Amino acid sequence: MSSRIRTSETRSAIHGLWWGPWVAVLVLIVAYLVWAGLFIRSTSFVAIDGGRYYSLFDDAMISMRYGWNLAHGYGLVWNPGEHVEGYTNLLLTLIMAISTWIFDKSTAVLAIQVFGALTMVGIALSCGWIARELARSAAPDQESFAWVVGSLIGLIYFPLNYWALMGMETGLAFLLMLLALGWSLVYRRTRGPYPLLACGAFAGLAYLTRPDTLVLAMVLLGAIQIASLRGDAKERRRGFLTILLYLAFPLTQLAFRLLWYGQVMPNTYILKVEGIPLVARLTNGWSYQVRFLAEVGWVLAVGLVAGLYRTSWQKLVLVAWIALGLVYQVWVGGDAWDLWRMVSFTVPVALILIVTAILEFAREGGRGVPRGGLGEWRPWLNRLGGRNVGRMSIDRWIGVSLVLAGVLSAGLALTADRLGISDPGLGDEQRALLFVAPLAVACGLTCWRHALVRSGVLLLIVLAGLYADRQFADTWMLWERPPQVGPNQRNVNIALALSRVTTENASVGVFWAGTIPYYSGRYAVDFLGKTDPYIAGLPGIVEADLIYTPGHNKCDLKYSIVAKRPTYVQGFAWYCESVLPFGREHYVPVSFQGVRLDLLRDSDDVNWNMVDFSP
Fold first, then answer.
1. pTM, whole model, 2 decimals?
2. 613 forms bridges with which residues in the sheet?
3. Do residues 582 and 590 lie in contact, with contact meaning Cβ atoms separated by under 8 Å?
4. pLDDT tens-place string over residues 78-100
5. Distance CA 462, CA 447 (A)
6. Are strands 573-574 and 577-578 parallel, antiparallel or unpaired?
7. Is residue 169 a contact partner of residue 209, using CB atoms and an 8 Å limit?
8. Half-sphere exposure at residue 28, Cβ-oriented, CA atoms within 13 angstroms
9. Helix, strand, coil fractions of the chain, as percent rounded to 5
10. Tens of pLDDT, residues 583-615
11. What residues contact 337, with CB distance under 8 A and at least 6 apart?
């Protein structure tokens, strides 16, 4: 008898060890890293020289060129000798400098993509950490579950993954702000000095990664300061020191900017904000935000409402993050790409609030509630279907059926076109299924016992992720290549061709200011002004309906092409401006290993014997 008991206890211990929350999180992270490796592989390609190349989003490649020049002794510049701040991600640019100092150009890019994958792992663990901290007061018995689901939340939204893996600062900035928030929650529980200092330091590093995080940091640090004013003198002093520690980061960067670049604001700020009428900026920003809300509006709305349930200052910080993120994106005029770069963080924040609210509600609502969610109808239903069906009461079977119906509805809506039962895209029937799916899950949860709420929460989060990612389903599944990989491959081939057929004194004129200058190593002329103060200071081109592409609506091709005459020109027209007649007269189209190039006629910086003249 005792032997059987010991065997049973051993099996229970092994079962608890194997299915512990840390194992679930570990399996989740390993699965994600496998997916991230396949994603990174899908963004690579074989170039004209037979080598495999990696390339980030083109704006990130601008930062890579800054990092390369810094690592090779030219300073933090885009063109050697020209001090223009054409980046807004100082910390990530410094990390890129380390990568380019250690590796060759292509491997350095791969290293940044791997860093992006590790950043996403950090986001997952931080989301789990924050969900667990919030669950401590809400439902202590649910802490481990909150950790697992929070980790899933950190990985579930595709745009956040895309920007991190393609080298943009979105992921790193969000990670650092999450760490700042996490340490503030630890301070709430321990009242020790070090968590608060860590909060200020991580928020400061987030500023160096992306100055826009100032908006989020003001909310977090302001809430901490208000809370500290209610404490004793020691707590007030700690709150003040945290503010000073944070301010040290932007003040240090400002001092560096004045000494190295001679400006108060970065050139990218001037490009995107100055010379754009306020009405046009707000109109364009609102148009961008409407498209984003059409994608994930209900997720954010539920998250905002959930954040007000049993509210605390920590939850209010998350609610403010969502609201300010949306408002700020309107204020700056939106973004150039409908991949929700600077507002992608709002989705996981909303999901964390939803999970926390459900756990709180389940814990409070579970007391004194009848076992069956159907109340007085349960005995009749049990008689109808048998008191228990497979050790599960009829109300649970109804709950399971509704949840499964919701999952199947979402799956059918997202795969109907691939199954050949609908046209490509989301039709009205598919949208209706996506609307019904979460409602079915929510109704199913009401029929389940409190002990089974965890499974319902997990399914609800998965459904929310499917709904938010429906536009990106093919890329999530790696059925199609991620956005911008095709242009990256074309630009890498152009850069390699230019490095072969031109001398080191040649120059390149580009609309895509990242990949071609980075891989060619030639002096570059930026037609759209990210690294050209003259172009950045021009009035922006705004269409009649006040819609424009932020950061891509200023140019002067007579200045950039006619006056500067770069050896290679990527194009002769942009928006309403064209210098095509000049291009036909002074540039000759040639090809090198199948790559088309427009080169300055009779230039001494071109090895003409290496190119084929186009007919």
1. 0.85
2. 590
3. no
4. 999 999 999 999 999 999 999 99
5. 19
6. antiparallel
7. yes
8. 24
9. 65, 5, 30
10. 999 999 999 999 999 999 999 999 999 988 864
11. 483
